[in-house]
Amino acid sequence: MTRLFLIGFMASGKTTLGRALARDLGLSFIDMDAYIERRYCKTIPTLFSERGEEGFRQIERIILHEVGDFEDVVISTGGGTPCFFDNIDYMNAGGTTVWLQASPDVLFTRLTISRTQRPLVAGKTPDELRAYIAAALAAREPYYVKARCTFCADQLEDRTQIAASVARFKQEIPF
Description:
By secondary structure, the protein is an alpha/beta fold. The protein has a single domain, classed as Rossmann fold. It is built from 7 helices and 5 strands, in the order E-H-E-H-H-E-H-E-H-H-E-H. The protein has helices at residues 14-25, 32-40, 44-67, 87-94, 104-114, 126-144, 159-172, and strands at residues 3-7, 28-31, 73-76, 96-101, 149-152. The protein has a 5-stranded parallel beta sheet with strand order 2-3-1-4-5. The longest helix has 24 residues, at 44-67. The chain is globular.
């Protein structure tokens, strides 16, 4: 039975690498944000708007405990998932947790492209976005470092890099 939990900052590549890794290993893939959107029939930004971050984090915890029971699966968590409640301990007890660590510059580039889709960074200027990344990484790192393994996720920009990262993941990460 394989259960991989991919954690890390938003835009660190959890969905990109997770989907490719699951396909390569013949495992199921769950993107928690997409799962939440399907379950609640609302987008993540809408849920944040309606329920606030605290309400969203409650939903996220419920879904984590649901998908955390699945077997032979790669689970891409939300960027904040490990930082609330007992979520990181729950994931560590139930499977292999891997922190996808991306540099602040890579995160900035990726978030600049997708920031309108992400409620915590939507509308930020470039300087505000850089400051937010630095502050949020500092706040979240104490949770991320509790992962069983760390994997550099800076090279996920095209199919060649993704394939190479999957191969490297399989060599570096014991699961």
